[in-house]
Design goal:
Elements (H helix, E strand, L loop, with lengths): L15 H8 L4 E6 L6 H14 L4 E5 H4 L11 H20 L3 E5 L5 H8 L7 E6 L3 H7 L4 H6 L21 E3 L6 H14 L4
Parallel strand pairs: 1-3, 1-4, 2-3, 4-5
Helix pairs in contact: 2-8, 4-5
Bound molecules: adenosine-5'-phosphosulfate.
Length: 199
């Protein structure tokens, strides 16, 4: 929906199909969701490395990184997270329009926000990967010391502590990153992409 009644969609002579053809790949958005410390960034990195080595043109949108620039004005209230995910999804959408395989790594805790993100892509264009690492395991790892801070009451609205995480009801792939190692998880994602004719 346009923000103003006075704007009009402008078609471009070079379209997504033409851009993708030049790259010899099917544009996709691979969307990681899960708690902080679940292993999303590690896995997203490993996946990008693997796709890059295969000659795929990729880009990784990592929640922490995007919050340094495009989303630096947003915090962690429900409204801010919703806006965070809306912008990340729109950026991912633009990048797939450019012909890229985009990997998104954000907590994206709300079902409805992930649903809105999915709706921006064609049916086979959005692959949601849920890292179901338990809160106990994430808190045990606590790579950034944020769970400890949240428990001490020094960090409000922390996902899994005093802010909700809504797991996917239906997604393309669920990974138990507590059980499988990184290589095995990447393998499962590659298998999923291959089965869906995505790579
Ligand atoms: S999301 O909920 O809006 O999707 P996003 O993935 O962008 O979150 O950012 C999460 C990262 O921000 C975490 O990995 C963590 O490093 C940091 N962070 C800081 N404060 C919070 C908080 N209150 N809840 C969750 N993550 C937080």
């Amino acid at each position: 929906m346009p923000s103003s009644p006075n704007t009009r969609w402008q078609d471009t002579a070079v379209d997504q199909a033409a851009r993708a053809r030049l790259k010899g790949q099917a544009p996709r958005c691979i969307w990681f969701t899960g708690l902080s410390g679940a292993g999303k960034s590690t896995l997203a990195n490993a996946l990008e490395l693997r796709l890059h080595a295969q000659g795929r043109h990729t880009y990784l949108l990592d929640g922490d990184n995007v919050r340094h620039g495009l989303n630096r004005d947003l915090g962690f209230t429900q409204a801010d997270r919703t806006e965070n995910i809306r912008r990340v999804a729109q950026a991912a959408r633009l990048m797939t329009d450019a012909g890229l395989i985009v990997i998104v790594s954000t907590i994206s805790p709300y079902l409805s926000d992930r649903q809105s993100a999915r709706a921006l892509f064609p049916q086979d264009g959005f692959i949601e990967v849920y890292l179901n690492t338990s809160i106990e395991e994430c808190e045990r790892r606590d790579p950034k010391g944020l769970y400890a801070k949240a428990r001490r009451g020094e960090l409000k609205d922390f996902t899994g502590i005093d802010s909700a995480y809504e797991p996917p009801v239906q997604c393309e792939l669920t990974l138990d990153a507590g059980q499988f190692d990184v290589d095995a998880c990447v393998e499962k994602i590659i298998e999923c992409l291959t089965n869906r004719n995505s790579i």
